[in-house]
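The freezer alarm interrupted the setup, so I double-checked each line after restarting. Inputs confirmed:
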Amino acid sequence: AQSVAQPEDQVNVAEGNPLTVKCTYSVSGNPYLFWYVQYPNRGLQFLLKYITGDNLVKGSYGFEAEFNKSQTSFHLKKPSALVSDSALYFCADNNDMRFGAGTRLTVKP
Amino acid sequence: SQTIHQWPATLVQPVGSPLSLECTVEGTSNPNLYWYRQAAGRGLQLLFYSVGIGQISSEVPQNLSASRPQDRQFILSSKKLLLSDSGFYLCAWSVGAGIQPQHFGDGTRLSIL
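Predicted 3D structure, all chains:
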């Protein structure tokens, strides 16, 4: 079965430090991997996606993600975290409309 | 520009009562439409999706049903709510599927008493 997994329920980082939110996938064929962010009591917002081409994709709000086929990963990264980045982040396999369980990112001042 | 509206934002219903949640999309034609449930602020569970008027695919057999009476209208219903139906319900749309992102409404928080 195709799926994505987010191994961390919670990630805490200090403001100004780099952040990484992890996602691994198990997809046969070519994966369509997406990252979304959710703020409290709101719907999900699209951040970035990997379909094909360059393994490093850049998205909204300074986020980027690297598609790594050998490690079957698609980790979300940002060089310098902001307090306003605190939210719930979801990795998704858009082919199958399946979402990871979510990772709650907290950025502390 | 495209917009998606969901209402109501919050709803408190007694066990056994009916349910109707509505979602409408503006600014696009023939969108794919989706209903998700999110429990306890965590992962999303796809409930239904639709690729056209009257075409509904159910992902999880349960107490809920969906209908698409018009191109940009998607309705989630139940005849008799259960306690386990509590949750945060999200509607979304996309242009086709796969390579295009989904665009989400702001959800309905449903509490069953």
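Quick read of the result. Residues 6 and 23 of chain A are 5 Å apart (CA to CA).
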